[in-house]
Specification:
Elements: E1 4-7, E2 10-13, E3 16-17, H1 18-25, E4 29-33, H2 34-47, E5 53-58, H3 65-73, E6 77-80, H4 83-91, E7 99-101, H5 108-117, E8 121-124, H6 127-140, E9 144-151, E10 173-174, H7 178-187, E11 191-197, H8 208-226, E12 233-235, H9 252-263, E13 269-272, H10 276-279, E14 283-294, E15 299-303, H11 312-316, E16 322-324, E17 332-338, E18 347-355, E19 362-365, E20 386-391, E21 394-399, H12 404-408
Parallel strand pairs: 4-20, 5-6, 5-13, 6-7, 7-8, 8-9, 9-10, 9-11, 11-12, 12-13, 15-17
Antiparallel strand pairs: 1-2, 2-3, 4-14, 14-15, 14-19, 16-19, 17-18, 20-21
The structure holds ligand LLP.
Amino acid sequence: MHFFEYKNHQLHCEEIPICEIAEKVGTPFYLYSYHTLVRHFTVFEDAFKGIPHLVCYSAKSNSNLALLRLFVNLGGGVDIVSGGELYRARKAGADPRKIVFSGVGKREDEIEYALKTDILMFNVESSQELQVINEVAGRIGKKAPIAIRVNPDIDPKTHPYISTGLKQNKFGIDILRAPMAYRLAAQLPHLKIVGIDCHIGSQLVEVDPIIEALKRLKQLVENLRKEGMEIQYLDLGGGLGITYEDEEPPHPVEYASTILDEIKGFGCTLILEPGRVIVGNAGVLISKVLYIKENEEKRFVIVDAGMNDLVRPSYYGSYHQIIPVKEEVREEIVADVVGPICESSDFLAKGRKLPHLRSGELIAVMSAGAYGFSMSTNYNSRPRIAEVLVRNDQMFIIHQRESYEDLIRGEEIPEFLMPESGRGKA
Ligand code: LLP
């Protein structure tokens, strides 16, 4: 469900025709619908009402400050994976007691920053990390709240690049070794065990693997309790999928009710870390068709957004629906929609059936709110594009398009390379 619709044959975001926004900000740009974001967060949050819970929005899916603030205003916490995301969460006004810190490679400075911020808990992914957190906490006179991220060895049935809970994945501590890690944590003086965590993968379209993971976690919690360890928080991670093409993921209400059935009365506060399901379908990428090019075999629609702006199709072979901003009856074509980047993998769609597109017109790449801007880069020295938020008939630029000056910020040419420093000297 989202608020991108044709009205009078023009694609609108809420009440604004997208062509008007394009005129003001230029192309390409990301566009988010405020009411879609609110709706997605609220539906998800409300679905877990029956039990003590905390929804920590996964910042990596879209870390724009305005979006973070919006979810903070709705009572959300934040799931972070770096010092940078912690900084953003704080700038957005997130309550530190609602921040969870995941990730296999936390640096000491990041650990220290999080400890000083008094976050809710660290989701720890190795025994060595436990030791390091203990050392840092001891050094600065704190007790670090920790959960162990358990790898339950479950096939989430998603793209191999985004499955994380299998033995061959780098994430978490093998469920069989987890009790040892907990015992170690219990002995380390500057750690406090508060929870257990897992995240088995992303874009999950079935709820069964999540429930299976939850069952395995519960079993482990029961064993830990027998050993006298208190597990206050059970963090199930994120991962709920969305419809990009014809996938039929469970609705958040169905997802929640299955989880609730399994966890009610277990005595833990449930933490969830949704990203994609909140922002994915609340954002689109708007781009302009530059050229149409044909040869005997193929037709290419060349647009002004590239893999540096939206990498998902190139990286995962992901499908994103592409529609023209102007709706009209047209013949159908089959084409590759490609960007300006000097890589053959720079495409937004391959062999796609599309309405006959013309150069100069606008297209909308749908479902681009998650892992769109946040994975964008400056490759080919392309300034990162603008982000716009629409609420009813008002638009807000929530991220200025980068300038050429932004591109070279921080770069320096050493003195010896400058002609005036004496070219030709040995
Ligand atoms: N929690 C943890 C520990 C995670 O690793 C992730 C995502 C999430 C929560 C949020 O997952 P979500 O609810 O968004 O599925 N770039 C890929 C997705 C990578 C997901 C990484 N981890 C893509 O574009 O599909």
